[in-house]
Amino acid sequence: MVLALFGRETFYRAKVAITPDVDRANAEHRRAALGYLFWPAALYEHYVEREPASSWYRLQVRQALRFGVRSTAVAIGALLWPLIGSLLIGNVAFTLVMYALAIVLDCVLFVIWLRHAVRYSKRAARGETFDLEPLRIATTRKAAVRE
Asked: Which of 43, 75, 120, 136 has the smallest set of CB atoms within 10 Å of its CB?
């Protein structure tokens, strides 16, 4: 028989001592992790402080906000370039090819964003201090040709 544990009680209803500092740190970790996945939450946390926050948390909120705004700007640019191109060049075939390439590019950018957002969110949930990584585009290295 499996019994569910509710709140902070153990199996024999003994109270578990959890200090408010541990609760606050865990709440900060959760809210910082959420900010990387959903940047309006970081915007809200940036302007509305619920309680005195740690410097780690304020740093993470600023980073999550910067990551979210930068990602949104890249996404808007990725969505707008085919529209601008189709307005400038009136060829129908060119427009169809451009929108097909744009769909592929949007999917690739979404996967890149999701990978970064989940990685940053997990690191913030663990309480790590880190800086945002610059966007690295994979390039192939030319191997030396042996003759």
From this structure: 136
Domain that includes residue 74, residue range = 20-126
**What span, in angstroms and rounded, lies between the C-alpha atoms of 35 and 79?**
23
102 in a domain, yes or no?
A: yes
Q: Give the number of other CB atoms < 10 A from CB of residue 111.
A: 10
pLDDT in tens, the chain (147 residues): 455 545 555 556 555 555 566 787 888 888 888 989 998 988 888 888 777 778 888 889 999 999 999 999 999 999 999 999 989 988 899 999 999 999 999 999 999 999 999 999 999 988 888 888 776 655 555 555 554
Check if the beta carbon of residue 81 is closer than 8 Å to that of residue 101: no
Under DSSP, is residue 140 helix (H, G, I), strand (E, B) or coil?
coil
- 136 alpha-carbon distance from chain centroid: 16
CB contact at 8 A, 6 and 31: no
- Total count of domains within the chain: 1
Cα gap 140→143, rounded to integer Å: 9
**What is the value of pTM for the model shown?**
0.71
